[in-house]
Amino acid sequence: MTKSDDNPRELIGPLAEYLDGEPVDEGSDASVDLTGADPKIVAEHLFLDGLLRRLVVGKDDDVQARVRRAMTTIERQRRQSLFRIVSVAAAAILVALFLWTTRSDPSQALEAIARHARAEITRQYAIEWRVGDSEPVRASFYAFGVEKMAFHIDRIPALDMFGVQAEVWFGSDGKEGWVVPSPPMPVFVVENAQRLHELVARFNLGTSFLQITKILVALEKYYDVKIETGPLVREWKKAEVPKPDKVAYVTGTLRPTPDRRLPERIEIEADFFTGTVHRMTLTHGEIRMVIDLVAELDESELALDWYDYDTHRDASQAVIYR
Amino acid sequence: MKSKELYELLVEENADMLLVFLQSAVRDRNTVDDLFQETLLVAWKNLGRFDRSRSFGRWLRGIARNLVLVHRRKSMRGHILCDEEVLEIVDDRCEALQRHRFDTLDEKLAALRDCVGGLPDKYREAVHARYNEGVRGRELATRLETSIENAKKRLQRGRQKLLECLERKHVLDDEAGVEPLRFEEAG
């Protein structure tokens, strides 16, 4: 398409055909070939075409309704983002609580886990969990004794596709349990740390993550538990395990129960001597969730207010007590 | 004011010109609808990257331009007309119109309405039949009681005269308007 000699603003060729309402190619919706066209002239005509169409449809086109639709979608996506954040937070809380509260099992190995948990020292772990083939979620887990703990997730892969960069802190100072999502989400606090489970449940997620609560609470009640010791089978920090020939393997097999939401099998791999849980695997039908201790982080002491929600919240975030 | 509410206000201020931009670049109405929605969603998610010293409307159209180009690459059978350079010029035109002293698009379009009303009969009839009634091709020629070639010619000349008329009214001048709306509060 080129300018005509007698009128520099006249269009000829495919674009002119298009603006006249003709198919560019007979029976085709193909894009217009602009090769050789003067961009300024093309732009002027397109702009005018757009204005004319706007002029005609303007009275019937409720722009505000379009904007409202978009804002409704935005609100829905925000809620979905929150849902995902809370889902992941719930998963991490439950993992943390498992590591934190498993201290009453009769076996020697689980006693070791309990001893490890009770020690009033700062422990910091990098933890990773994944469901099936999904991308793993990484988190940092901080604990002091059995009462104070904090969990941090700085990136949630499920939100990447939405362009949302979200982080979540949650934990307990021994008295209160709390969840601190990214601003502008509010902070949620339960007054009794033991009700942190309830805080998670109040979100009414109904996701597979919540099943873990029942799993852990009902481990002894509904599962046949077998504890064995043996050598470390997989390649994991072999150099750092004091005696890799003696690792505790705890296997829980679900007894017949009407509750079909419980996983059929729970496998825990722990250091026999220190009680540190390396890996927990939950299998339910074809769904397999693996929670790994990736590394023990630098065990430098942290101030005890590290386990307060106020340390991790933004000044602008509201606090909601449950 | 919450950032979402302020965002909605800013979007409402600029939605009309965003639609003009998309309707200039894309013929298919459903695609225009989709790209309009997508532009607002992408803008919301990237609000933190918005340079507050820039025009919010131009920023929105910049997102829309990228989406139009992506759509074009994905859909070779789409109704996309423009390349990047053309879209930039259309955006400049939108910005000039946005900055015009009139408040609403309807007021801004009043000048165009005047220009259409001032067209010689044969061009006004062609423009009216094409845009108001959606008549095209052979049907347009029949309506205008002329040949197809002549009908097309009338449309082209009609649009050309409208452009000249708008220029005479300084509607599309870069210096015609006031400062663009700036993003001052949202964070």
Main sheet characteristics of chain B: none
Fill in the CATH topology of the largest domain in chain B. Rna Polymerase Sigma Factor, Chain: A
Tally of DSSP β-strands of chain B: 0
**Cα gyration radius of chain B (Å):** 18 Å
Q: What order do the helices and strands of chain A follow?
A: HHHHEEEHEEEHHHEEEEEHE
Number of domains of chain A: 1
What's the helix count of chain A? 9
Approximate helicity band of chain A: 25-40%
Mean pLDDT score of chain B, rounded? 79
Biggest interface: chains and residue counts? A-B, 52 and 66 residues
Mean pLDDT of chain A comes to 65
If you consult CATH, what is the topology of chain A? outer membrane lipoprotein receptor (LolB), chain A
Pattern of helices and strands of chain B: HHHHHHHH
How does this model look, in words?
The complex is a heterodimer of chains A (322) and B (187). Chain A has 322 residues and is an alpha+beta fold. Chain A has 9 helices and 12 strands. Chain A has a 12-stranded mixed sheet with strand order 7-8-9-10-11-1-2-3-4-5-6-12. The longest helix of chain A has 39 residues, at 63-101. Residues 1-6, 23-31, 82-90, 96-110 and 200-217 of chain A have low confidence and may be disordered. Chain B is mostly helical and 187 residues long. Chain B has 2 domains: 3-98, Rna Polymerase Sigma Factor, Chain: A; 106-168, Winged helix-like DNA-binding domain superfamily/Winged helix DNA-binding domain (Arc Repressor Mutant, subunit A, Orthogonal Bundle), CATH 1.10.10. Helices cover 68% and strands 0% of the residues of chain B. Chain B contains 8 helices and no strands. Chain B has helices at 3-25, 29-45, 56-74, 84-98, 105-117, 121-132, 137-144, 148-168. The longest helix of chain B is centred in the first third of the chain and has 23 residues, at 3-25. The N and C termini of chain B lie close together (10 Å). Mean pLDDT of chain B is 79; it is low at 175-187. Classes of the chains: A alpha+beta (322), B mainly alpha (187). At the A-B interface, helix 1, helix 2 and helix 3 of A face helix 1, helix 2, helix 4, helix 5 and helix 6 of B.
